[in-house]
Structures are given as C-alpha cells and as structure tokens.
C-alpha cells in the first residue's frame, strides 16, 4: 500500500495505523497515551496529524492508513493542533520540573519544548491531587498526572493484575488504587517507565541523581534464568537504578521488580571487602599474595595428605559463565571430581538421565505456539514474574495452561486447570491418572525448580519424562538460578565433564559431600545459611572439616565463624560476565561498576590460581572465544541418543507427611535477599507456614506444631491452615530465618 | 460498616438475571446494574465492603467496580439523604438560569452541591449533565421525577411538598 508522509512515498502494511508506519520509518510524531505494547485509546490527542481531504487533524495512533493517503506531520494545521493540545495539557500540569525526578527524561517536557508555546492563555489555579502511598517501589506525585492511562492499561492488558484505575470523572478524575490499597504486582516497576510524566516515579531512586549525570550500562539481569536485558544507570561508580533494555525475544520492553530493584543488595553492609585468612583461630586481613598462596597451599596439602576425594568444591549457579568455566577447569584439571552446583537439591538419582543442560524446550517467543502447557511445580507469578506477560499472551492465543503443584497458588494469567497434589501423588499422577488434555495437540511440559527440591525429585522427573515421551510432548525446565544452564554445560557437576563429556570416576554430589564430612570445602558465591538444602548439615560439615575456603561477596555469620580463607569477590555488577539463559541464548556484558580495591573479580582470582598451578592463563576475551567455539562443537542432542537409566528411588508411601519449601520471590538469591526496597514490599511480609486441613484437624486447635524429622524435634508456631493444600502437607516459604535448622523438604511426623 | 458484606440471596438472584444478559466472559458489563440493585437495598449508597463483595462475586478486580462506582453520579459511595435533588447544569438550562436555581436551593437547604442535609432528608446531587428536557429548562429531577420551567417559587413548592 502506498502512503505519503510529508510528500514522500512509504510502503504501508494492511491495517497499520499512521503512528506505526511513522515509527517504522523514523518519522517523529509526539504522543503520550500511545504505547506499542498497549491498546490504543487516543485520549491525549498529542499525535494529531493533518490528512489531506479531512477537515480536522486526526489522531495518528488510531487512524489506519489508506491507499494514497497524504499525511503531513509538520504542516501548519498539525503544528497548530499540537500547540493547542500542549496548552491544554499544561493547564493543570505543575511546572515543578526543577524538583521533579522525571526532569530531563520527561516526555511532557520534551514535547512541550518541541511543540508547545512558551506562554499560556490560562491563568487559573492548577488542580491539586492528593498523593497516595502505594508501596515501597513507586513514589507518586499525582498532581503531575496527565491521565494518559498507560499505567491502567498495563495492569489490564499486560500484567493482568489491575491495581490502578481511573477514578471519578471530568475535572475530578484521578489515577489511584482501590480504597486504602497499595500496589503489589510483581511487575509494578514497569508503570514507572510507562508514565510519560513524573507522576509515578522510582521510589528508591528518588532525589538521588539527575538523569543527565547518569551513565548507562547494558547488562543481563542475574535474578532469574530468563536473562532479561537491562540497563543499569550509575552515578559516581554506584548503581542508582535499573531500566529495561528492549529485547524482543526475551523481555520485550518490560522488567520484573526483582530485576529492577534487586541490585540494591550489592550495597549491603555485610559485603566482603577485605581478604582474610585465619591465623591462630582469628580472621586477619592479608595481602592478595598471601591469600592466594594460602588458598593454593590448602588445596595442595589436602590433596597430598588426604587424597583427591577429600576436597569438595561447590559453586553457585548464579556465578557468571566465565567463573563457572574457570572453577571447574581449576579443580577438574587437578583431577578433583567433587564439584557440584545443585546445592538446593537432595535427590540425585535422576542425574544420569538429566539432559545436557536444562532448557525451556522452546524459545520464549514461541510459548504461545503450543496448544497445552503443563506447569509442574512452578508458580510463574512469584518465581518468573516476567514470564507472566508471555503466558498471558499465550492464554489469549488459546493456549491452555495447567498448573500441577504441591501447593495451590494464584497466577495472573488464566489457568485452564489447577491441581494440588502431595509428593507421592505427584509422581503417580503422570504414571496412572494422567492429565486430562488432548494428547494429539502440541504440548509443552515445564518443570519448575520446586520439583528439584523435593525428596522424591527423581521419581517425579522420571514419570514426567516417560509421560511426555508417550504423548510426544516437549519437555522443558525452569531453573532456580540464572546460570544453571552454564553450570550443567561447563561441567560443574560430579558425573560429567565440560560439554557433557562422560567421566571415568564420578565424584560425590553435593548432598554426599556434605554428609560424608570432607577435609576441605571450597565455596564459591554460596551462603551456607540459605543456599543449601539443609543448612544445619552444612554447619556440621563446616565445623568438622579441616579447611574451609570461601570465595564470597558477603560475610555471613557462618562464614565468619568457619572460614579459613575469605576471598572477597565481585558480584555480577563488578565484573565482566555472561549468562546462558533458559532458552539457550548466550549473553555477555561488561563490568557495570568498578569493585572496591580489595574486592577481586571472580574470574581473575580463579585465573590467578590456575596460573599458579601452570594450568593455563586466561583473560575475558580468551575465555569467551573458547566458550563460544566449544558451544559450536557440543552435541545438543545429547540426551536423545542416550539410554535411560532406571530410577530406583526409595519407595514412598502414602502415610508420610511432607514438608516442602516454596522459593520466596524476594529471597531467591543472595543479592535479592539483601535488597532493602524489595524487603519492604507486601510480598516480603508474607512469609508463612501453611498446613493442610487434615493436619489441622489432628492438631485440635493447638497453636504449636511439634515436628519430628530425621530424629530431631522442633516446634513450629504461627502457621495457618490452608484448605487448598493436598493432604498431609506442610508448606514453608524459604526466607531469612526460619529454615536455618531444617531441610527444605522431607518426611516428617507430627506429635498430636 | 467494617464487617464483611454478604450479598443476600435475593440480590444474588437479581444480579444473576443481569449477568445472563451479557456474554459469559464479559462480567464487567453487569457492574452498573448490579451496583444499582445493591444500592437500592442499602439506603441509596454502596460501601467499600460492598464493592469488594461484588467484585469477588463477578470475578473481577475491585478497582474495576470502584471505577464504575465513582464515574457515574447515580451511584453513591457515601451515605446520602433520602430525597435526591438533581438540578440540570447543562448548557440549555444554564442559559435559562439554572445557576440561580441551584444557588437558591443551596441557600434554602443550607448545604453545598454534593452534600446532604444533616437530617438526611435531602441530597443535592453534584455534576448533573443533560437530563434530556431541554425544552423545559431550567429543570430539575427530584426522586427521578422531572420538574420543568422552574422558578424560585416553584422550587419552594416542590421542596415543601416532600416529606
């Protein structure tokens, strides 16, 4: 279709609007209410343009193009319309730009300068709207609101969790929440970006810096395995805020609150800032040289005195790909096989059958191409909030989404079915009952991280795999950390080497390493208090062992007590790094801020050790080019050609009571756990213990639950009875303090 | 008023009848009528608790109901007087002197527009748009009944005739 804009010919698509055509061709049309991912309301009138043979200027956002249409974006009529609209908008908008955080990046300011007049015909008092406190993440200044309703439409159409609305009408219209309610959406931060004025602003960033003083650094968010693209804005070598970086294939233009505000954890007070070694039972500060020598000496002497199998190396899957590669390279080159990253798990019987690496099973963009999606053991709303948007699109596209979980949890998209089953029923479900779906249709089964934490993980994974093969479904995973893919792929597992190469002598898995009490433990980026399946077992192991080496960004009480060497390392922000997201996209980024002088970049300190042992010498670009080259040679059909091992996991009877742990949205990794703003949110106050109603009956109105687990007794108070839970189930939310002495899942008995 | 509001069966029946008029997935369509039904049974206004209960019953967000309740002047979110006076403010009536009529009523009842008299006898409604009786302006509606070609005397008589 031929369309002329300013007398120049453009090719337009069918059903395209003028603004879409103009945007595609880089022709500027001012706008406020229009946003490419939201519905069109044409309420701000800023995008009015002149069209030949039409008397009045027409809104470009809602007018479809027609053959031979002649549009003028800079004619007198257009300019006049823009000027008048601008004048109307400024009748009530306060001119407090000098104290407004939006100043400098304000769409109203920009458009006003380009298209407005310097003087107004209106001398009346401006309207004042009383502010509301909507929570710790968004600050409001509703007098500045121009009623574009982008935030309302975002809640309605994108996050499907409408909390803001247009209340009252005419002169009294205002944007607000329902009476006395705050905003609790996991995607609320996007409304800050959408707001074209300073009405909704980033609360933690408020008054910290002016936008023109900020530096922008592109990076990858490390808080979930989706790998959202993100811009960190820094001021004086400090991250002060984060905004989304557009990536059509991953996060589009959105960002979850966890990704947006998680960075605050970098500035926690318990950051490890000094290299320390233990000398006469006391931790003392030391030089880098001494630190490296001591570390190397411990590793060497453990190998010589106790043997290769007496050293256990554990790394967090939140580490960068470079760190994960060098970590396993360092230790596996020394023939140490006790390497693992699956610190939150306890049942490893399935590990031989596990694919080369966890993968979503499709591209994120293709989620809506399936007829059925079964979500097993995952709550998208709290674990992968950014995917809520994708599942919303999918369900609008007639994909039927089902949730199968040990708890009954809400989602912000439409579920075609929801079922809560306890652990033993979960595995039986896929063997015997089978989900009621049309098996001829294209089906995707997504296994979430909560399944990995269960005592009968292998049983469940086995029956799901058998089921999905029988109906020819695609099987996918969502992982708890951002880089589990790399951890599996680069050999941070005891039973496979780099690239899934088989190993002659498989090492111990994390659970056996902890249980068997080794002489030396190496922890990389792990918090013994929260990052393990059973924190008390870890404490015991640390206590018994001879040496404990911690590569860590934070000094926790257990680290302070048991560490022989503390090597302060960078968080994701202070190093060049890369992550492989769950769809398999390799994404690299450069250092965002420089670390303190005594904090070492994780990869470089590992490289120092590698160099000391004559095992090579790397820099960021040589690691990256090596990784990318080897990625081309890896056989990604790995598991298809492999024979499946039979799973013999412990038989599970129906009489058990199951204790399970849900990952808490804002306690999911060590950085998020330390984010001040996220800890103030409604979700963070919501840390609970739920018990099923049949257990409630046993209790007979007592307020204390006496639990016996692994020959240990303990008491639990402040629990709630949840009717929707399957029988014989207790559900914890993993949080700061209540899991310290307990395992994340298990069989328990209750004293009645 | 802090207690949880329970929609009684009689009202539920009426709301269900409204719901049946609209497609199944479009429960938002029945907000206005449902609010009017509940309001009728609740001394002419709705509360926060009512909005919450209705949103839950219709399976929609509370804010959706709240938007509707605050947009339309026929739905009150505060307790109001028994008799509703609505003086048309639109252009035809304004040209024929509706401002005078409104001022007169305000003075006579000693309340501002949008308020109710302390004895809860009268409620002077705010933001009245055209009531479709332009030929008889200035006009007002008292308890849904039209009174046209108003004069100050006429207003006196009408108001005095109300108990």
Structure description:
The complex is a heterodimer of chains A (about 750) and B (about 160). Chain A has about 750 residues and is an alpha/beta fold. Chain A folds into 5 domains: about 1-90, Ubiquitin-like (UB roll), CATH 3.10.20; about 125-265, 2-Layer Sandwich (Alpha-Beta Plaits), CATH 3.30.70.20; about 275-345 and about 500-630, Rossmann fold (3-Layer(aba) Sandwich), CATH 3.40.50.740; about 365-480, Dimethylsulfoxide Reductase, domain 2 (3-Layer(aba) Sandwich); about 660-750, Beta Barrel (Barwin-like endoglucanases). Chain A has 23 helices and 33 strands. In chain A, the strands form 8 sheets. Chain A has a 7-stranded mixed beta sheet, sandwiched between helices. A 7-stranded mixed beta sheet of chain A has the order 30-29-33-27-32-28-31. In chain A, a hairpin with a 2-residue loop joins β13 (about 275-280) and β14. In chain A, α8 (about 320-335) packs parallel to α18 (about 600-610) and α11 (about 425-435) runs parallel beside α13 (about 455-470). Chain A is globular and about 90 Å long. With about 160 residues, chain B is an alpha+beta fold. Chain B has 2 domains: about 5-70, no CATH class; about 85-160, Glutaredoxin (3-Layer(aba) Sandwich). In chain B, about 40% of the residues lie in helices and about 10% in strands. Chain B is built from 7 helices and 4 strands. In chain B, strands 2-1-3-4 form a 4-stranded mixed beta sheet, covered by helices on one side. In chain B, a hairpin with a 2-residue loop joins β3 and β4 (about 145). In chain B, α1 packs antiparallel against α2 and α2 packs across α3 (about 50-60). The radius of gyration of chain B is 18 Å and the shape is elongated. The chains are: A alpha/beta (about 750), B alpha+beta (about 160). The interface of A and B includes residues 167, 168 and 179 of A.
């Amino acid at each position: 279709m031929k369309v002329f804009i300013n007398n120049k010919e453009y090719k337009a698509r069918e059903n395209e609007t003028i603004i879409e055509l103009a945007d595609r061709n880089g022709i500027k049309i001012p706008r406020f209410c229009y946003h490419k991912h939201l519905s069109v309301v044409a309420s701000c009138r800023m995008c009015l343009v002149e069209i030949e043979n039409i008397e009045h200027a027409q809104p470009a956002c809602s007018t479809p193009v027609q053959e031979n249409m002649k549009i003028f974006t800079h004619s007198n009529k257009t300019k006049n319309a823009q000027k008048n609209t601008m004048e109307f908008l400024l009748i009530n908008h306060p001119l407090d730009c000098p104290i407004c955080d939006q100043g400098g990046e304000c769409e109203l300011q920009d458009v006003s300068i380009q298209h407005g007049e310097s003087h107004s015909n209106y001398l009346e008092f401006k309207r004042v709207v009383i502010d509301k406190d909507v929570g710790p993440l968004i600050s409001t200044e509703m007098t500045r609101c121009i009623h574009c309703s982008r935030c309302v439409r975002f809640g309605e159409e994108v996050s499907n969790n409408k909390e803001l609305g247009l209340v009252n009408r005419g002169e009294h219209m205002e944007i607000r929440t329902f009476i006395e309610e705050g905003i609790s959406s996991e995607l609320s931060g996007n409304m800050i970006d959408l707001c074209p004025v300073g009405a909704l602003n980033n609360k933690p960033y408020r008054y910290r810096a002016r936008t023109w003083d900020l530096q922008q650094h592109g990076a990858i968010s490390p808080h979930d395995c989706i790998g959202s693209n993100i811009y960190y804005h820094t001021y004086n070598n400090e991250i002060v805020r984060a905004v989304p970086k557009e990536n059509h294939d991953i996060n589009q233009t959105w960002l979850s609150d966890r990704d947006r505000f998680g960075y605050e954890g970098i500035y926690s007070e318990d950051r490890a800032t000094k290299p320390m070694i233990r000398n006469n039972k006391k931790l003392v500060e030391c030089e880098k040289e001494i630190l490296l020598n001591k570390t190397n000496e411990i590793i060497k002497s453990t190998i010589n005195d106790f043997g290769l199998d007496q050293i256990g190396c554990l790394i967090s899957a939140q580490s960068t790909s470079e760190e994960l590669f060098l970590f396993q390279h360092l230790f596996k080159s020394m023939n140490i096989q006790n390497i693992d990253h699956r610190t939150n798990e306890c049942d490893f019987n399935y590990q031989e059958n596990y694919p080369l690496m966890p993968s979503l099973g499709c591209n994120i963009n293709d989620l809506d191409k399936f007829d059925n999606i079964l979500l097993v053991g995952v709550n998208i709303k709290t674990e992968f909030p950014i995917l809520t948007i994708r599942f919303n699109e999918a369900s609008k596209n007639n994909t039927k989404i089902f949730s199968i979980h040990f708890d009954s949890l809400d989602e912000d998209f439409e579920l075609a079915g929801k079922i809560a089953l306890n652990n033993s029923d979960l595995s039986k479900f896929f063997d015997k009952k089978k989900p009621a779906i049309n098996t001829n249709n294209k089906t995707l089964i997504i296994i979430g991280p909560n399944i990995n934490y269960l005592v009968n993980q292998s049983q469940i994974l086995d029956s799901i795999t058998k089921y999905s093969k029988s109906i020819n479904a695609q099987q996918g995973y969502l992982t708890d950390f951002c880089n589990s893919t790399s951890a599996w792929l680069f050999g941070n597992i005891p039973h496979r080497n780099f690239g899934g190469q088989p190993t002659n002598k498989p090492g111990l898995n994390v659970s056996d390493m902890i249980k068997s009490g080794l002489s030396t433990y190496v922890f990389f980026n792990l918090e013994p208090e929260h990052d393990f399946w059973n924190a008390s077992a870890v404490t015991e192991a640390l206590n018994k062992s001879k040496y404990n080496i911690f590569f860590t960004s934070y000094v926790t009480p257990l680290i302070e007590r048991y560490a022989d060497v503390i090597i302060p390392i960078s968080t994701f922000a202070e190093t060049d790094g890369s992550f492989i997201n769950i769809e398999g996209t390799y994404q690299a980024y450069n250092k965002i801020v420089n670390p303190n002088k005594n904090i070492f970049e994780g990869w470089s300190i590992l490289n120092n050790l590698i160099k000391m042992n004559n095992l090579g010498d790397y820099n960021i670009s040589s690691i990256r080019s090596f990784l990318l080259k080897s990625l081309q040679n890896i056989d990604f059909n790995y598991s298809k050609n492999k024979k499946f091992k039979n799973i013999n996991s412990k038989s599970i009877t129906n009489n058990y009571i199951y204790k399970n742990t849900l990952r808490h949205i804002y306690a999911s990794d060590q950085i998020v756990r330390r984010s001040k703003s996220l800890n103030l949110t409604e979700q963070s106050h919501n840390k609970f213990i739920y018990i099923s109603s049949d257990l409630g009956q046993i209790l007979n109105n007592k307020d204390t639950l006496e639990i016996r687990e692994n020959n240990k007794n303990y008491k639990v108070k402040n629990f709630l009875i949840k009717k929707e839970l399957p029988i014989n189930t207790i559900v914890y939310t993993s949080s700061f303090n209540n899991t310290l002495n307990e395992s994340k899942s298990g069989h328990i008995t209750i004293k009645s | 008023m802090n207690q949880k509001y329970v929609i009684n069966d009689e009202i539920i029946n009426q709301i269900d009848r409204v719901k049946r008029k609209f497609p199944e997935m479009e429960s938002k369509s029945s907000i206005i009528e449902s609010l009017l039904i509940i309001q009728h049974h609740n001394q002419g206004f709705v509360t926060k608790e009512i909005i919450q209960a209705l949103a839950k019953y219709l399976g929609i967000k509370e804010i959706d109901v709240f938007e509707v309740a605050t947009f339309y002047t026929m739905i009150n979110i505060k307790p109001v007087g028994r008799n509703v006076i609505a003086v048309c403010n639109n252009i035809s009536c304004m040209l024929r002197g509706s401002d005078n009529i409104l001022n007169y009523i305000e003075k006579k009842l000693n309340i501002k527009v949008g308020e109710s008299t302390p004895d809860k006898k009268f409620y002077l409604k705010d933001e009245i748009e055209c009531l479709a009786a332009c030929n008889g302006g200035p006009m007002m509606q008292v308890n849904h009944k039209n009174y046209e070609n108003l004069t100050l005397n006429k207003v006196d008589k009408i108001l005095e005739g109300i108990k």
